Amino acid sequence: MAAQILLLEDEQAIADTLLYVLRSEGFGVTHVRLVQEALAAFRQQPPDLALLDVGLPDGNSFDLCREIRRHSELPIVFLTARSEEIDRVLGLELGADDYVTKPFSPREVCARIRAILRRTRRPAPDAPPARPPEPVPPPPPPAGTLVLDEAAQRVHCRGEPLALTRYEYLLLATLMRRPLRIFTRAELMDLVWADAPDTSERTIDAHIKLLRAKLRERGLESELIQTHRHMGYAIRLPD
To answer: Which residues form the Response regulatory domain (predicted)?
Structure first.
């Protein structure tokens, strides 16, 4: 089944180009021009990915992203003419999966969408089972204060999963695989944001701040993630 894309873009020329390329690449696309129309479309039939222009006549997509994130982990790509770093950092902090600045190559946008969907979509089975499977009780949560569960792509804190965005998980998982090892910002950019080469290193600092806040909410020391001045970041796992 073709992946469904929600396209929010008020410039018709840009929308027409994206519609042509996305549909020619096999995507199903719903095109809207206003934030409220996008929100209504999302509520009526959630898509597989949202491609959102930032500046719209009735608001901006940052507010729409906040609303979507209250209910869903839907992959989101921002599409904007604004290239200010603060806008990009804000978009990523809100949970966006990518950020494309105009002018852009429509084929590159398609490639980024495919890469995101490969990471976030689970393949459907080839055929339905002949009979419903027997219910399997969920496994017990991992033991320990802070545990990396790579199979489920989660980090458990005292037996409960942390609510992390994709990049927050990838960053924390990278640090936890090598406790006390200092990762430079360049290394973290290569390991965590390899699919977003236009992202700046300030994004790392913003995500570290968010992770520390979430650890504090669970009663852990935020200093578990250590800043090594002029060097990078490391994590000290609790006992």
So the answer is: 4-117
